[in-house]
Design goal:
This protein has a single domain (8-181), classed as Metallo-beta-lactamase, Chain A, CATH 3.60.15.10. It is α/β, with parallel strands linked by helices. The strands form 2 sheets. A 6-stranded mixed β-sheet has the order 1-2-3-4-5-6. The chain has helices spanning 44-53, 67-70, 73-80, 88-94; strands at residues 8-14, 21-27, 32-36, 56-61, 84-87, 117-119, 122-127, 130-137, 143-148, 158-160, 166-167, 180-181. It is built from 4 helices and 12 strands; from the N terminus they run E-E-E-H-E-H-H-E-H-E-E-E-E-E-E-E.
Length: 184
């Protein structure tokens, strides 16, 4: 989904196994993408998209630890030899099938390696002349906002803007989202 006037493009790839989504963010000039929440064991749709654009992965970012956000994590981490960034609490939870809830879904445990880079409340990651900011959210500190600079408003995700203002995207009016984005 190109955004008018933005130097970035965000593509949502449905995770067929769970109905969640993986987001691939690329700059219009760069050759490296940021992948957010690789939640399907079958990572071929993400890999096919990246290969079709001639793009590799700079970074995998996790918004939280649930199995439908991490099922494809290790496969992409190995295939693209890229680091994983998330909150410290999320990193601690992705290694434990009880905490990432995969133990309770009846399809086998998912246990990932800890993240390569963790943060307590805030972190920034330089990327393709831009900056991606990560902010831990909610009381558990397991969830995080992923804030690349330039776009706001993705389906089914509450957006945060500078100064902090929240908006619910379509379909989200009756419940709070666990994750948030701001790409500016």
């Amino acid at each position: 989904m190109p955004v008018d006037g933005a130097a970035m493009e965000v593509v949502s790839i449905e995770n067929n196994a769970y109905g969640s989504a993986t987001y691939v963010v690329t700059t219009r000039v760069g050759r490296r993408a940021v992948v957010i929440d690789p939640g399907d064991h079958d990572t071929s749709p993400v890999s096919d998209h990246l290969q079709g654009r001639g793009v590799g992965i700079e970074l995998i970012a996790l918004t939280h630890e649930h199995y439908d956000h991490i099922a494809g994590l290790e496969r992409l981490r190995i295939e693209y030899r890229c680091p994983v960034v998330c909150s410290r609490s999320c990193s601690e939870a992705i290694v434990d099938p009880r905490l990432n809830l995969s133990r309770y879904r009846g399809e086998g445990d998912i246990a990932c390696l800890p993240a390569d880079s963790v943060f307590e409340e805030f972190a920034a990651w330089p990327w393709d002349g831009e900056s991606i900011r990560f902010i831990a959210t909610l009381d558990t500190r397991r969830e995080a906002c992923v804030l690349p600079s330039g776009i706001c408003s993705l389906p089914a995700i509450r957006c945060l803007a500078d100064p902090p203002v929240s908006r619910n995207c379509p379909g989200e009016a009756k419940r709070n989202c666990m994750t948030a984005w701001h790409i500016c």
